[in-house]
From TrEMBL:
It comes from the Bacteria. This is Uncharacterized protein.
Length: 123
């Protein structure tokens, strides 16, 4: 059983690159990263600072990623944060998998598609 608190940051790029230091400093969590896509523009990739993370994981599939992270930590992370837009679909899947639900999973697309967002506002 894990005693430390762990926070996972999915795609910690751009403004999300500052989250690791803030989470460690303000909340005392150990921070891990998950990279879902290494084929982003160089300007985006250059913002990633791997030295700030206890471990950096690469996304392959939901099942493999969950198993790898849980094996490493001794369970699911305590917190999950999405660092940048490219990671949102995987972030939503992981939130649902680990029951860390900051958003309603079924409305995932509506958070990014303005037409669907407007339709939800009319419900």
């Amino acid at each position: 059983m894990k005693k430390d608190k762990y926070a996972l940051i999915v795609d910690p790029f751009s403004s999300g690159a500052v989250f690791a230091d803030r989470i460690k400093t303000l909340y005392g969590c150990k921070v891990i990263a998950l990279i879902t896509n290494r084929h982003l523009p160089p300007a985006v990739m250059s913002t990633f600072r791997p030295e700030e993370y206890l471990t950096v994981f690469e996304y392959n599939s939901l099942q493999d990623t969950v198993q790898e992270i849980e094996s490493s930590l001794g369970g699911a992370p305590d917190y999950i944060v999405c660092g940048s837009e490219p990671g949102v679909p995987v972030f939503d899947l992981l939130c649902k998998q680990w029951n860390l639900l900051p958003n309603v999973f079924e409305l995932s697309q509506a958070r990014r598609d303005k037409y669907l967002m407007q339709r939800q506002l009319m419900v």
